[in-house]
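Notebook, p. 212. Picked up where the previous page left off. The plan for this session was modest: take the two constructs that came back from the sequencing core last week, fold each one, and keep the raw output in the notebook itself so nobody has to go hunting through shared drives later. Recording the first one now, exactly as returned: residue sequence, then the structure token string.
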Amino acid sequence: MAVSWTRHRFSGGTLALDAANTVVYRGDPMRTFDRFDNPGEIASFAAAATGFRAAELAHRQLAVPDPRAIHATVLTIREATDRLFRGAVSSGALEAAALPPFLRACADGIEGGARETHSRGVSANSAKELIAFEAALAASALALLPEQNYRRIRICPNCNWLFLDRSRNASRLWCDMAVCGNRQKARRHYRRSKGLKEVYDA
């Protein structure tokens, strides 16, 4: 089934975290699924990200000429990114063992993007307007490495997505208040209502 790549699906705050969140219900073996199982969704995601991540991309368009050709590279970058920064949220520091595979994955993405640009004969002028998706994904992930950036990554307690907390006092709780925040409020209200009912029934 085709995915509707709405603004909510770009709640991560950066391209790399948005991509990490394409695994839904990560950590829940009964409900988890991967929106990139279909390589064609990478192209759809990239088209939406061109708009939602315009500032991060310096208003360049993400290029995905053949999603199947970059599928494995994209998934490797995505999983290495999630592993490194999810671990950093839990432990408060970047895990040394997770860094080499992360850096190799990013290097492969940048190298693959450069090969793609060369093989397609992209001119210097066009290169200012286009960027290979796998290269952009790698660059976005690498930009999270400075301590002042990765220490602002959070895990949404509702959906388990990663997101970058850019709030002034670094106190943001939800990836998307309009979705996850409201769902949690509704659950709390329901539990309180059930508790009151149980008291009256007793």
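Okay, moving on. Second construct, recorded in the same format:
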Amino acid sequence: MRDIGKMMQQARKIQERAAKLQEDLRAERVEATAGGGVVRAVTNGHGEVLEVTIDPGVVDPADVSLLQDLVVAAVSEAQRTAKQLYEQRMKELAGGLGLPPGLI
């Protein structure tokens, strides 16, 4: 019975830490640029797009497709970086609890 209580306590601890991690990631800001910095995308640690900034000098009505490609590239890179951040933090959480990778 003692082992079950200890396991339940550890499970609660894991849930609390995971919830805190999710909060922290939501507040985290990840930034990426494309086109040498003319397009900038910012996401949170969950990869949700928060902001897209476009240098007015890159706006060419005759070449909208280039601007669209730059926006997609910047957003994709920011989301990829956010995913890496999320995976790193989850790995740290699992490692700090002595759990096998992939359990959380």
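Notes on construct two before I forget. The chain has a mean pLDDT of 89.
Flagging for discussion at group meeting.
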